[in-house]
Amino acid sequence: MSLFRKAGEKFEETKQSFVSGRKAEYVCRACEKSVDKEYDHCPHCGEPAVEPID
Known about the structure:
Blueprint: H1 3-20, E1 26-28, E2 34-35, E3 50-52
Antiparallel strand pairs: 1-2, 1-3
């Protein structure tokens, strides 16, 4: 994945969280995508790396 594509996806994800009024409270440390609640495994990549955002 190119650097610009990854940056664009992160920007869009952040923008959507502000537009929808929800705040992500957790993040997957493996794929770096935000999730809205605590999961045992990331719904995006399947890794057991979901942690609270500090």
